Amino acid sequence: MQPFNIVEKPAFQEMLQTFDKQYELPKKTFISQTAIPSLYNQVKDKVLKELKDISFYSATTDMWSSSNMTPYMSLTVHYITDDWTLQSKCLETRFIPDNHTANILAENLQSAQSLADWALEESKLACITTDNGANIVAAIRQLGWPWLNCFGHNLHLAVSHGLDSDKDRTARAMGVCRNLVNTFNLSWLKKRDLRKAQTEANLPQHSLILDVATRWGTKQKMIERVLEQLPAIRRVLVEDRKHGHLNPTWQDVSVLESINAAMKPVADFTDVLSAEKHVTVSSVKPVLELLKGELLSPSPDDTELTENIKSNMCRVLAQKYSPPNIQLLLTKATVLDPRYRGSMEDAEVLDDVRQQLVQELLDMKEQ
């Protein structure tokens, strides 16, 4: 993707002239003031026709920053069509120059461009999903909208708190790992020497992975890759006086192995409940039960650190989904999903939820 002013670049103009000497290149003002607005209106009319026929919808919203740190808020709605197809439409990405207070966020979410301009009634909003940021949660509460926190963000928080177990040791080991990867990734010579050492040690020709702060799964991938390539890494560093200090100690390796043992069982769940083509909310409770009952349960081979990390992760996840309104929402979704049908619920709870669902259906019929 290129900016509009590419049409003014001599090289771009020369390239198009080579393709077709008779082609008249439009001005950037035509693209920004005519072509793009026209395309936007066409797409908006099409989306409006779809939205006017839906009975209910859910939404997701997030604050994010561009590469030059410009803050934006995006709002996406999700709904099911008459032919039972799950659709997702990003209605808006808005520049938010003001302080991101709860009041400012609430005003922007409720503004004409966000919902009313798309003929969406707040009464038809089944739920909105956000991260756990205090201001966005307060904004949703201020609006009185049904709310569910993001599973991926909850998992990220659980892992972060899990690493608080013996924080001095885990922070040091993670720092050693990160510095090591950075050094290799920023040096062509180090990468060359690593490939040679991998061949000599009969190891896979894998590159080292640097973690990304906002994606917890990359921490586990970084650690796992360093542990996999440790023999080759040591071969390179033992001949490098300048960077020899980066060689992990046996204590660091032991901590990294303990962290990896706790994280690896849940690594596949980073994006498992992130989807736009199928419903995922009904799988939250089953996944939580799987994590608690199997993947994060103590194992005879666990070190004390691994066991503590698992325990902390379970505790945080349980806290995030403990509010009664969230529990009720997840239970309803699980009961309605033919794969589960509330199989993990107590008989009394299951009967009560079924009665509530029947009453909701009757109320919908009368409307």
TrEMBL record:
Output this protein's name.
Answer: Zinc finger BED domain containing protein 1
Matching entries from PANTHER family are given as: ZINC FINGER BED DOMAIN-CONTAINING PROTEIN 1-LIKE, ZINC FINGER BED DOMAIN-CONTAINING PROTEIN 4
Q: What is the lineage of its organism?
A: Eukaryota, Metazoa, Chordata, Craniata, Vertebrata
Instruction: Tell me the organism.
Output: Dissostichus eleginoides (Patagonian toothfish)
